[in-house]
Amino acid sequence: MLRSRNITQILLESIQPISGLAPLSASLLSVNGQPLCSVFSKEYDNNVSNKEQDELSSFDPMDNLNIYSLIAVNKFRECTVDDGNKDGWMIVQLDNGYYLALKKLKLLASASASVTAAASQSASASAAAESVGKEDDDSPLILMLVCDDGFPKKISKLKLDRVSEVLEKGLKGYKANSDN
């Protein structure tokens, strides 16, 4: 299981520049839209403040992140497999010159999580063993990159794929607290 500092390091990798361009931020979101871990590139503060100076308004990037997180979760709830979202990722264009690159993590059930779930439902141990290694269709986590419109969408997809692969392995068996 990954620790928060490990998750932060993994997210920092996703905002490393490629040819001078980088996503503005990366976040791991709960299924409720709560940012669990977020990192910001140096360009984020500069980019946000430059765009908003024209409008004579400034707000905390964290406020924007909370809004973007809610947009991300709502888009995934609205989306179905028929919408072309078979591999759990999407791009959401925002009105302010940014876009969100999103990917729902495909977490694998771990042996201990499956056995615990099977025991609580009075299922047999063999049923628990069968569920080990199956993907969680209703993943409790979403990976989100906030990008400027000038950042290539293909690169954001590649970054999402790379980071999600590492997170999926490290968070194998993670279950969200259902009390929230």
Q: Which key features would you list for this structure?
A:
180 residues, alpha+beta, Beta-Lactamase, 5-stranded antiparallel β-sheet, 6 helices, globular, Roadblock/LAMTOR2 domain-containing protein
Strand arrangement, major sheet: 2-1-5-4-3
Number of strands: 5
User: What is the fourth-level CATH superfamily?
Assistant: Dynein light chain 2a, cytoplasmic
Number of domains: 1
Which percent range fits the helix content?
40-55%
CATH architecture: 2-Layer Sandwich
Could you explain how this protein is built, in words?
The protein is α+β, with helices and mostly antiparallel strands. It has one domain (4-170): 2-Layer Sandwich (Beta-Lactamase). 42% of the residues lie in helices and 18% in strands. It has helices spanning 4-14, 42-53, 61-78, 111-120, 125-131, 153-170; strands at 25-30, 35-40, 89-93, 98-104, 141-148. The chain has a five-stranded antiparallel β-sheet with strand order 2-1-5-4-3, sandwiched between helices. A hairpin with a 4-residue loop joins β3 and β4. It is globular. This is Roadblock/LAMTOR2 domain-containing protein. It comes from Pachysolen tannophilus NRRL Y-2460. It holds the Pfam family SLM4.
